[in-house]
Design a protein that fits this description.
The protein is an all-beta fold. The protein is 2% helix and 59% strand. Strand 18 and strand 19 form a beta hairpin. The longest helix has 6 residues. The radius of gyration is 21 Å and the shape is globular.
Length: 338
Amino acid sequence: MGNAHAASWGWSSSTPAETAATPPPVEAPPPVVPVEPLPPSSPVDATPAHSKTATNSVGTFEEIHKPCKDIALQPFEGLRFIVNKGLSSHFQAQHTVHLNNEGSSYRFGSTYVGTKQPSPTEAYPVMIGEMSNEGNLQAQFIHQVTSRFKAKCIAQTLGSKLQSVQVGGDVVFNDSTLSVVCADPDLLNGTGMLIVHYLQAITPKLSIGSELLYQRGAARQQAIASIAGRYKTENWQAAGTIAAGGMHASFYRKANENVQVGVELEASLKNKESVTTFAYQMDLPKMNLLFKGMLTSEWTIGSALEKRLQPLPITLNLTGTYNIKKDKVAVGIGAVLG
C-alpha cells in the first residue's frame, strides 16, 4: 500500500466567500491522507465492465485550481517524524510526531482501502481516521457507489464534542460534473449549510461552472453565488473564480517532464487584501530528489527539499521560509519511514 501524504479533501467553499459562510474548523491539524485512494499492493480481481467508474475530462468544480495547489509549497516548522506501517494489503497505520516552539504533538492515523477497484489507480471503499494526543478525531469515508456516483463523508470531533459533519457526493456525466455537500445539518432547528457545484465542458479545452452556497443559522440566512471558468491544454491551463466576496485566479504551466510552475492570485473585497503566489516544482528522478520553491507578494520566500534514500524506505524533508518584511525565519526538518 502506498504512503498517505497528500492533503485531505475538504468541503469548504472554493470561492473567496464571507468568513461566516464556512463551517468552524477543528483546532487539530487535518489528517495527512491521499486525495485519491491508492490501489492495494496485491492483485485484485478485475471489475466487470458495467461497474467501472465513469470518467470525463472535466473533473469537479473544486479541482479547477488543483494543478497549482499540487505544486504549492507546504512548509512546516520544527522537527517532524512520520512512520508508515502496512499491516496488510488493505490496511495501513501511521504515527506522526511533531516538535516545534509552540509545543509537541502526536497523531495516530489509519487507512483502509477496499477491494473494489474500478481503475488501476483507484480502490474503494476508503476509510481514513486520525486522532491527536488531545483527543481530537477526524474520520473520512469515500466510496464509489455506482459508476457515476461517488459518496463522501467527513466528521470531526473536538474532544468529546462533535465539531462538524459533512456529507455529499459527486455525480459524473459524459461532459459535466455535479457535486452536492450538506454541512452540519440540524433538522430540528432548521440550520446548516448546502453547497452545490456544477462544472460543464463547453469544448474539449474550455469548461465553465458555478457554485451556490446557502447557509441558514438561528438568526439569519444567506446565499452566495460564484462563477468559474477554465481553459486547459496538454501543457498549461488558466482558471478563474469570481464571487461577490472576491476572486481567485491561477495559471499553471508544465515546462517539461521535470519542471512545473504556477501563479495564483487571491483577492478579498471584504478585507481589501490580495495575495499573489509564484510556485515551482523540479523533479530529478535519477537523483530521487524533489525540489519546491515559492515567492509571495507578502515578501515571503521559501523552498523545500525531499530526498528519497533508496534502497532504504526513508525520505528526508527540509523546508525553510523567510519573511523579508517581518524578518522571520522558519525551518523544518523531517523524515518519513515506510
